[in-house]
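Supplementary Methods, section 5.1.

A reviewer requested that the exact input to the structure prediction be made available. We therefore reproduce it here, unchanged from the version used in the analyses.
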Amino acid sequence: MTERAVSYEKKSAVAIVTIDNPPLNVMNQQVTRELKEAFAALKEDNETVAVILTGAGDRAFMAGADIKEFPNLIGRKGIKADFLEGHAFLNEIDQFPKPTIAVLNGLTFGGGCELALTCDLRIAEEHAQVGLPEIKLGLFPGGGGTQRLPRTVGDAKAKELMFTGDPIDAAEAKNIGLVSYVVPKGEGLQKALELAGRMTRHSLPALSKIKKAVDQGLSTSLDEGLDLEAELFEEVFQTEDIKEGVQAFIEKRKPAFSHK
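The structure derived from this sequence is encoded token-by-token as follows.
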């Protein structure tokens, strides 16, 4: 029986998804399938409020795609649908209705960088290297990199990283806004758990609506975004959690949210 390449564990309201495909946790069909399964399960898990995604070991978060799968694509036409399937998988993580944090605990190249970009926040350990080296193979980022990276760091810096294929270190990744925090080696998960803990004490419906308002609003005009915000604001007033939150405030106690 093939060993699983992706697993998850739960710590209170936080789930930790770990990619374990040694030696460098590369993306292949098994990893893709099992990541989909993990996020699908956690989406329906009412106890999980936030998800942390990381790689096993300390060498790599994910060092790209499995290049050994590429020769089968060379010269073939009519395979756009296959690539769109890959986009659909990454979109599922991007649109996951709960906060997500990627812990970059080593090499984060190519598809690994593109996977990290689907998460809401990224934390890098100080030894991490981040890059999109596809140009060095005569390729370009085809897993959403040309779209998500410019939206994160701006078009000029994104083009520089993709045109050169050269990696950047954790400090530079923070400087350009690609990651939110840089921590010592081995401390990424601890920082992510601390950050997630500050989120999971709040209402999941409200957290989900913040994420939806921001993500969808960025692809619309300001007026359309404000209309969406008003729609979601109306919806949040129908939740059980707002009743609890307001009552707890009046009673001067901590709210006990049901995430409903």
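The two ends are 40 Å apart (CA to CA). These observations are discussed further in the main text.
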